[in-house]
Amino acid sequence: MLVVRPRQRLHRSAVLWHDAVRRPTNLQDSNAWFQVTTTAVMRARSSHSTSMSSKSSIDLYVLGSGPSTSVPSIRCLVTNPNCPVCPEAHANPNSRNRRGNPSLLVKHQGFHILIDCGKTFRESFLRCCVPSEIPPLVDAVVLTHSHADACFGLDDPRDIQRRAPSSGLAVLPVHCSRQTGRDITTQFSYLFPDHTSTKLPSTVLWTSKLQQVHFNDTGVTSFAIQGSSLTFQALPVWHGADYMAHLLDGPPIDVMFLDALHVSQSHPTHMSLPEALQCLERIQPRKAYLVGMGHSIDYSMHQAQLVQRRAACGIDVELAFDGLHIHVDERATDASS
């Protein structure tokens, strides 16, 4: 779990970005476990204040709401032309069924923090952020894990890094667990060169200028992102494990993101739509958005079903989509495309 909050006394949580995980089939195989960091964005208010100023608000931009394979599925386009989702998403560039890898841009007091940049990051950023009111500059990156859908776009932020007056690109901090840091160093050795090596060429490569900042692999870790007023808390979990969580005494969640890969089909490491809804009924967030959705979920049809369900069970849940903008402050939570 990764908690983000302004540096004040915490009174209530705001946003939880969660990639649901389950137990693997072979519990004795350590390779079946993969460490991830569930991401939460939290806001706080001063104990001496009854409302938050606009400076304490957080803007969230969903850059990607799909699965690792993204939508439309290439295999589906080739082998299943009757799919109700993929052909439409392929033909319509503005379709809300067109979904990139899960990614979230957090804006707070003019500071931009990118949570995950997977295989589809470049396309998602161009689609969602250019042109728009979002300055196309990122100040920090947080990686939840080292799967392709979370980090394989790590070289693309070079185009949206801030520039230093004298040395070109400013260093972009990449916050991640130590294990994720080891993985991305192997996967992107040219982005994290060993400057003590004498075998490196002297030529300067036009790549992202990154610097890893690690949080612990075990236990709850708090860390600040330099230059921002946000503080993160990281709680590592394992991809595939069963967990017991005590939530009764915790502050209410204002906005929760939860994955829902399939309409009904069970999956070993992700929730289906019914399972996600059952989870939300137990947790009772004020507002929930579903992400990580595959091509069995049609935005128009299933969004309409969620609206009907809201009236029946009182859970305010919607399907997220690429380009969704959510404004979170003390008074209300507003969403817009």
Automatic annotation (TrEMBL):
CDD domains, A to Z: metallo-hydrolase-like_MBL-fold
Name of this protein: Metallo-beta-lactamase domain-containing protein
Source organism per UniProt: Aphanomyces invadans
Pfam families for the chain: Lactamase_B_2 (PF12706)
Gene3D superfamilies linked to this entry: Ribonuclease Z/Hydroxyacylglutathione hydrolase-like
InterPro entries: Metallo-B-lactamas (IPR001279), RibonucZ/Hydroxyglut_hydro (IPR036866)
Superkingdom of source: Eukaryota
Lineage: Eukaryota, Sar, Stramenopiles, Oomycota, Saprolegniomycetes
Ranges for domain Metallo-beta-lactamase: 100-295
